[in-house]
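Pipeline run #58 for the internal structure catalog. This entry was flagged by the ingest filter as a single-chain record with no existing model, so it goes straight to prediction. Upstream metadata was stripped on purpose; only the residue string is passed forward. Reviewer on rotation: M.T. Logging verbosity set to normal.
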Amino acid sequence: MVASVDKNQKVSYMSLIPAANGLKIENKYIETADGLKLHTVVASFNDGVKRGTVFWKTPYFETSHLHYMVAGYDYFSTKGFNFILQSNRGAHLSEGDFKWLDQINIEDATETIDWITKQEFSNGKVMSYGVSYDGYNALAANVSNHPALKSVVACSAPANAATDSFSSNKSIEIHLLTYIAGREQVKQIVSNQEAGMALATADIHDWDNILYGRDLGDWDETIEAIKNIDSTYWEERSLIEGLKKSSIDTLHVAGLSFDQDSRDTLLAYQEVQNKGVTPENHRLFLHAQGHGCGGIEQSQVIDFYLSKITDTPVAQIGLPQVVQYSLANGSWISGDRYPLSEHIERKEFELSLEEGINSEFASSDSQVLATMLEQPTGDLGENNMAILAVEMKEDVYINGSIEIVLKATSQAPETRISAKLYYTIEDVQISQIQQYESGLARSSVVTTDDANDELGMVYPPRLLEIKAGTKIYVHLLTNDYSHIQALSPEREQYFMSSDQAKVSILDGAKLILPLEKVQSRELASN
């Protein structure tokens, strides 16, 4: 089913904004190769001068994110650039079905950039820009390798459905269904209480019909991929291979405070650095804030990327490969690689099982099929969790991505283990090191048949001071109710027919912390 556009029922909110900075605002519909029309707002200078164009693609046109888009319109137009804002296919006024992190966005970006270069206001040069899902769209434009695309700025951007956004290790957050429906502006037709009762016994394929009264194409494709471990879905929902071939000047931006998508940014950046054809053209900027660009708009960093779409681009001389905020003294540090080994060292700490808590815990993943609603796990008891801990012997400054390495055995293949991270404050208050809307970390590992295999989790980057005497806790879970897992048929049948599924955490678990190379300094006030 292809979603059509009812222009009488929907409004282009951007068109209600008065033209400013000498621009005119027009609503256009750019036709794709497969015959769909993508709603596009064009803010261009009306003075006959050909200028560079900033291309911003979003699935959030009709939401509260609009104020941020307006700020972007004002910012880029004030700097003298045309501004193009387009809805993803299937979202808001654009035709088609919305597809989460699908490579079709590469083709759509190619055709849109083609259109831009043919307009009278265009000098033939384009920069793609975005934050979060819009950042994914910016990277999709990057993968197009369009000759007119001269630079890319992507902040807190996912790039790989197998690991990013609503997923981890090919498991999907149930909230993805709500997200898809929100992009297509489909209203829920049953109450939460009714939904919980109806979904408990329904086939997961039918959840969209029960909740929203119609098929949502992307939900059906996603569920089919979860049930079919040989599906090509995951390869079709990844930009990684394309990014590794990219030679376009690209700035990857991530935050160091509670932002899952910043881990996604780091994973993609490191793939490009380790295996890309032109890693020197990809730079990393890590700021001290959370989700977003962290104020790069007010810095000279973005000017280099904007200059690429002018007739007199600025040379990249002196621009570091990596720029990262330093916790210890409140300054910026830089280097040629990430992690910044000259400033930060990765130290291993042995994790031990907390006394009185069993290392074996039940794996009841099939229970995730019982409810659509995200629920806090609460106190799951000793049969389905394990808690590991380590005490810091000295003050440390964490600056970067924390990693956990486990060894585990399971009576069922491919058991998924997720983990929350906490730390104590003066043995009184417990705070999360990682926190998300669902209350669960998306980072996870999957057990194998080989108990000697080391299973590693990578967490979003953090900027955090830990005092001597502080305990860091790793809370391991297997019954993560907010996710649907890519279960093999044998594994699914096992969990649905047995209450005895066990996972054992073996000795040798490690916590790996990225620590600034300082002995003792006061935490910077900013």
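catalog note: The longest helix spans residues 260-275.
catalog note: The CA atoms of residues 418 and 444 lie 4 Å apart.
status: ready for reviewer M.T.
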